[in-house]
Specification:
By secondary structure, this protein is mainly beta. It has 3 helices and 47 strands. It has a 22-stranded antiparallel beta barrel. It has a 6-stranded mixed beta sheet with strand order 10-11-17-18-15-16, with no helix packed on it. Strands 2, 3, 5, 6 and 7 form a 5-stranded antiparallel beta sheet that branches. The longest helix has 11 residues, at 2-12.
């Protein structure tokens, strides 16, 4: 209906006059201004109609301007904003020549004046959606993971796994550099970052060939704050949040630019306590009779504690007008503790027994990474070469204990208790390098090419001891080790440019060769000798794949633009997903890696229609094979259930997404995103054919109100209907957030007050039924939180448009794959 209505409007618009507007901009001191930004706006409501840029002589023009009254707004670095006179396009005045606009230069020394610009919360561009985090009042005090959950098309499940438009397999970058984490480790990193560190979130469902082919659902790039001001400037923030338990975070961002040097740093500390209630009901079903033979009713009460420190230091050296050399050092130190009081009531043939378990875990996770980058402009035509070299190191230590106590139906001890101790160290080293070349061609076309190589080495071990009848001994049956090495070599070419007055296109091809090998060493039990013996397994893989991308844009008129794109992508298993270790959650539940995992591949097609730049409608289709998905499998003889990832199925998705970001009045701005999609999983799980399909709706929106010059308010929220997450059918869930923001201290400070999940509706519920598996899950966390935050901005400098732009580092794929199962 949206496309039909908009097309009807566009057809009718052909009867209107199409005018031409021309003008020129100059510096107030008679100097020519190059690359000034020119905005054509409606005179009645200042709404934006078109953008353009002035040429080297300061001239600009707008073509095909419809009937109406307008004016032109002009901005340029180092100058005050300027405006043209109001003019009208009509049948008798179809060509307008505006008077030259002289922009007044700003003083070189701003003397500590803070320059602020209002950005919309969500911007929709041709190849990506951009979320401006600072524009959201209710993001204050949130973690990066919570900010992601509020973003259009993004969902986060109960384990912290990120999905985009209903598809798992998202590659997450930070400042264009891969996090090299996945699963639980990625979730912990994003929880350790607070919203005060973030500038923008870029969401790309079909990235071009320049990016790594990894990320079945696309790429999310989290940009941290980095200013373009010369001189000394930055910001500091502190936030306190209170749910059932407290949450505190502080951050400091600083930048100093002088002459040929640009220095920057970002420091962050976070302290969070949270609790969680988890209820799991499992029916164990006889495979032969299909009757329930036992029922497990588990109630878990968990408390988590996290303290984290993040730091980033960097420098850019402008060796010449055309050459820039940069270096970045970053790292984090995160400590997590986890406690779980678990009670399992077991009903079997009318006899009830009970198991009580206490699980404790202390985990430290450290990271150090360094990036050296180089950029050189070869000539005046814009030919450019860039290079990046990265080294990344992760070091994790996880100490855990699991104590079980057994009781009969009367509450008396029925068996001796036991305790399992585990030590699970992990180390990951990543070396990566890439070179990119850009060459502008005639008539606005461009050619890009690049090479990349990465080397990854991981080493992990699991050492278990058991205490039984007061005696502690090594548990060789559970002790294991796993080493993994991987080398990926890639090359790409990309050609883009106009194909005519209304057509433009982009065609790319990426080739990636993957060489990997894994070695697992553990023990097996010899029943004849009644002893353990070494039992080693290994695997080697070598494969080469092509990843084409295509992009076609048709600009029907000034109001309507159509974009069709296609891409083939890959999702490689997380390094930890290949690890065959067993990690226990309780006596009857554990998770295990799978060294036999293969990569999954997807074909993604999207057709997007944009109306006046504010209303975007996207139709999408994707087909994924060998999908990597968590499954539940049961050992009926021991009443145990274990979770592991497998290449279980194929996934077919068809969907439509509509998003709109527009002002309703001068003081009320609306942003809304609606996505309806149908997921269908089909595959063989635990020797049972499973086919699950469900149509889901995802809604994300915010209403922002400007109450006066310094006070703003926001109502935001999200909602998801029931859907399919692998083998789980999920129930509806959502959250409503309220917030207000007050500028203080002459605009240098900002106070924010917000309440997240006002209705306490952010609860996860799901069922899974196939074969002999029959499970219900109900989970509720500490999501209703009141946040009070303060941000102070300081500045002593001037605007400088030559600040180096962020580039993706050479380790874009590898960092997104470190992590838990």
């Amino acid at each position: 209906m949206t496309l039909l209505a908009v097309l009807t409007v566009s057809i009718a618009s052909h009867a209107q006059t199409k005018g031409t507007v021309q003008g020129k901009v100059e510096d107030g001191s008679t100097k020519t201004i190059e690359s000034a930004t020119i905005v054509l706006v409606r005179a009645k409501d200042s709404s934006t109609v078109k953008f353009t840029a002035a040429d080297k002589t300061g001239k600009y023009s707008f073509e095909s301007v419809p009937d109406g009254k307008y004016l032109v707004a002009i901005t340029a670095v180092g100058h005050q904003k300027g405006f043209s006179e109001v003019f009208e396009i009509s049948a008798t005045n179809a060509s307008v020549q505006l008077k030259t606009v002289e922009l007044i230069p700003q003083p070189k020394n701003l003397g500590g004046v803070t320059v602020t610009a209002k950005k919309p919360l969500v911007e929709h561009k041709i190849d990506r959606t951009v979320v401006n985090v600072e524009a959201s009042v209710t993001s204050a005090g949130n973690t990066a993971l919570e900010v992601l959950e509020k973003s259009p098309g993004v969902s986060v499940d109960r384990d912290g796994n990120i999905s985009l438009k209903g598809k798992e397999g998202v590659m997450v970058l930070i400042d264009g550099r891969p996090t090299q984490l996945g699963g639980a480790d990625l979730a912990n990193l994003l929880r350790s970052m607070n919203a005060g560190q973030l500038d923008q979130i870029e969401i790309m469902t079909n990235p071009p060939a320049k990016y790594d082919a990894a990320g079945n659902a696309g790429i999310i790039n989290i940009k941290t704050k980095k200013t373009k001001l010369a001189g000394y400037n930055g910001s500091a923030s502190i936030n306190y949040g209170q749910g059932r338990l407290p949450k505190v975070n502080e951050s400091l961002n600083m930048n100093y630019r002088q002459d040929k040097w640009n220095l920057f740093t970002n420091l962050n500390h976070g302290y969070r306590e949270r609790n969680q209630q988890l209820n799991i009901n499992r029916n164990f079903i006889s495979e032969s009779t299909k009757e329930v033979v036992s029922n497990f009713d588990q109630q878990a009460r968990m408390k988590m504690f996290n303290r984290s420190y993040n730091a980033k230091f960097g420098a850019d050296y402008f060796a010449s007008k055309n050459t820039t050399i940069g270096v970045v050092f970053s790292g984090f130190n995160s400590y997590n503790s986890f406690g779980n009081n678990n009670t399992t009531n077991i009903l079997q043939q009318g006899i009830t027994s009970q198991t009580k378990a206490l699980s404790l875990s202390d985990r430290t996770f450290k990271n150090f990474s360094t990036n050296v980058n180089f950029r050189h402009v070869l000539d005046s035509t814009g030919k450019e070469i860039t290079a990046d070299v990265d080294y990344i190191r992760y070091d994790g230590r996880n100490n855990q204990s699991l104590s079980n106590y057994y009781f009969d139906a009367t509450g008396r001890e029925s068996d001796k208790g036991d305790t399992l101790y585990g030590r699970l160290p992990q180390q990951i080293d990543i070396y990566s390098g890439k070179v990119d070349y850009t060459m502008p061609l005639k008539k606005g076309a461009r050619f890009d090419a690049g090479l990349k190589a990465s080397f990854v080495k991981t080493a992990a071990a699991a050492f278990y001891d058991t205490i039984f009848y007061g005696v502690r001994s090594a548990d060789l049956a559970r002790t294991n080790g796993f080493d993994y090495e991987e080398n990926i070599n890639a090359a790409y070419v990309n050609l883009s440019g106009p194909l005519g007055k209304k057509w433009s296109g982009q065609l790319g091809l990426r080739v990636e060769n993957t060489i990997s090998k894994g070695y697992s060493y553990g023990y097996s039990f010899d029943t004849a000798a009644l002893s353990f013996y070494p039992s080693d397994t290994s695997f080697d893989r070598n494969y080469t794949q092509l990843f084409p991308t295509a992009f076609l844009q048709y600009k029907h008129n000034d109001k309507n633009t159509f974009v069709l794109n296609y891409g083939r992508r890959i999702r490689r298993p997380n390094y930890q997903s290949l690890n065959p270790f067993i990690e226990y959650l309780d006596r009857y539940t554990y998770q295990q890696g799978n060294p036999n995992l293969k990569p999954q591949f997807s074909h993604n097609v999207e057709l997007t229609h944009s109306f006046r730049g504010f209303l975007n409608t996207t139709l999408n289709y994707s087909k994924t094979t060998d999908i990597i998905q968590q499954t539940l499998e049961q050992i009926d003889s021991t009443n145990q259930t274990f979770v592991r990832q497998s290449n279980i199925a194929s996934l077919r998705q068809v969907g439509i997404a509509v998003n709109a970001n527009m002002p309703i009045t001068k003081w009320w701005r609306n942003s809304i995103y609606i996505n309806v999609f149908n997921n269908q999983f089909e595959g063989l799980i635990n020797n049972t054919f499973v086919s699950i399909a469900r149509t889901s709706l995802s809604l994300n929106g915010s209403q922002q109100f400007t109450l006066n010059k310094t006070l703003t308010a926001e109502v935001s929220g999200w909602f998801r209907t029931g859907g399919v997450e692998g083998v789980f059918l999920t129930k509806p869930m959502g959250g409503l957030n309220l917030g207000a923001s007050q500028q203080v201290m002459k605009g240098k400070g900002t106070l924010r007050l917000s309440v997240n999940d006002v209705l306490w509706s952010q609860r996860f519920r799901a069922v899974s039924k196939y074969g002999t598996v029959d499970v219900k899950i109900n989970e509720r966390g500490d999501s209703r939180v009141v946040n009070l935050g303060f941000t102070y901005r300081f500045s002593k400098g001037k605007m400088n448009g030559a600040a180096p732009k962020r580039r993706a580092s050479s380790a874009s794929d590898e960092q997104s794959r470190v992590g838990g199962n």
